Amino acid sequence: MLGFLWGTSTGAFNIEGAWAEDGKGESIWDQFGHTGHVYMNQTADVACDSYYKTSYDVYLLRGLHPQMYKFSVSWPRIFPDGTNETINSKGVDYYSKLINSLLDSNIEPMVTLFHWDLPQALQALGGWQNDSIIDTFVNYADFCFSTFGDRVKFWITFHEPWVISYAGYGTGEHPPGITDPGVAHTVLKAHAKVWHLYNDKYRSQQLGKVGLVLNSDWAEPKTPTNSEDVRASERYLQFMLGWFAHPVFVNGDYPDILKSQIQEVNQQCSTAVAQLPLFTEEEKSWVKGTADFFGLSHYTSHLVSAVTNGTCTPDYKNIGNFSLHVDPSWPQTASSWIHVVPWGLRRLLKFVSQEYTGSKIPIYIAGNGMPTKDSGDLINDTLRVDYFHRYINEALKGMEKSNTHTSF
């Protein structure tokens, strides 16, 4: 189909294994698992063993006939201490071999620079709470562009920065287990600086594109005729998607809804519940427009109702004065938070197109899927097949109705 790219995606930590082999450094996810913070003390030390199965993995990919494969580079695999002072040549060779193998198979590589696995050595210096990491990330990106950019034409700076900020530095559910969601500001500035690096130094020779992948559920008003529920749904989308999309795709700043809601809640509480950092005018112009495509990750939807009296606790649901619900008719997956709501994807695509992209830049659905319980039957996977079938159909409807010219 014209204007459609079919692909599949992974993340380095999820599949590579070989967590400390051939000179790789430790990541915050490695340490999180090794210190007993993961369900049943599981680790990704071996995972899918993809580090040693590159040829077989690409062979399996060829059977799917994808046009594109999105994967991530493990920052500590090529820079064990996070900086270019120590470069692990074996790690560099691994990714170079993977890229060449994909191209030989007529599969376009889409490379993610950061899919959550921060080098532990950088976390020891403050991680994304330390502004100095911006230049460190830029140096890492510069190395990747110069080393792989002659063959890679699609780059993603950050995969799902909302998850990094909310689960990693907000609730602490993910590593590094810290409660400081202000890191989103640092992540946005790091993204913008890497985009400008590519634009100024590499684009004219390499002719590639740089963007980021933003995750968002769809928010449907619980009672569509209730104006308060409609506004609560809008707040939810702005708190989740607009937090990152609005600065990059609209005006270089956070959504007015987000700013006014936080200000209102802070005024109602005895102490400030949340602080939203400010961009200078120069930073706004620097951040605005720093994406050549819109990467979208989507898994489920919610019914949203308004809450008139949110509590004075630093949780985005309370601050947003909204409550999330599930329609009992929505099938549940093996995950407690993922329900099958295919039409939510179509409505989210329409929202993204109207709010952020129009027909100017392509949208890539870079994350979608569902977990299933292990039944011991590797062949009977009808639930997942049905999920993908229904969501792909909704993506097709979204393309036809919103003039979205590229989907993934």
Q: What report would you give on this structure?
A:
With 408 residues, the protein is an alpha/beta fold. The chain is built from 15 helices and 10 strands. It has a domain at 1-215: Alpha-Beta Barrel (TIM Barrel), CATH 3.20.20. 44% of the residues lie in helices and 12% in strands. A 7-stranded parallel sheet has the order 1-2-3-4-5-7-10. It has a 3-stranded mixed sheet with strand order 6-8-9. The longest helix is centred in the middle third of the chain and has 25 residues, at 227-251. It is globular.
Compose a concise summary of this entry.
With 408 residues, the protein is an alpha/beta fold. The protein has 15 helices and ten strands. The protein is 44% helix and 12% strand.
* Uncertain spans: 403-408
Highest-level CATH class of one domain: Alpha Beta
Q: Which fold name is given in CATH as the topology of one domain?
A: TIM Barrel
The helix-and-strand class reads alpha/beta
Keywords:
seven-stranded parallel beta sheet; 15 helices; TIM Barrel; globular; single chain; disordered C terminus; three-stranded mixed beta sheet; 10 strands; alpha/beta; 408 residues
Layout of SSEs?
Blueprint: E1 7-9, H1 12-15, H2 28-34, H3 54-64, E2 68-72, H4 75-78, H5 89-104, E3 108-114, H6 120-123, H7 133-148, E4 154-159, H8 161-168, H9 183-206, E5 209-215, E6 218-221, H10 227-251, H11 256-268, H12 281-287, E7 294-297, E8 301-306, H13 316-319, E9 322-325, H14 342-357, E10 363-367, H15 382-402
Parallel strand pairs: 1-2, 2-3, 3-4, 4-5, 5-7, 6-8, 7-10
Antiparallel strand pairs: 8-9
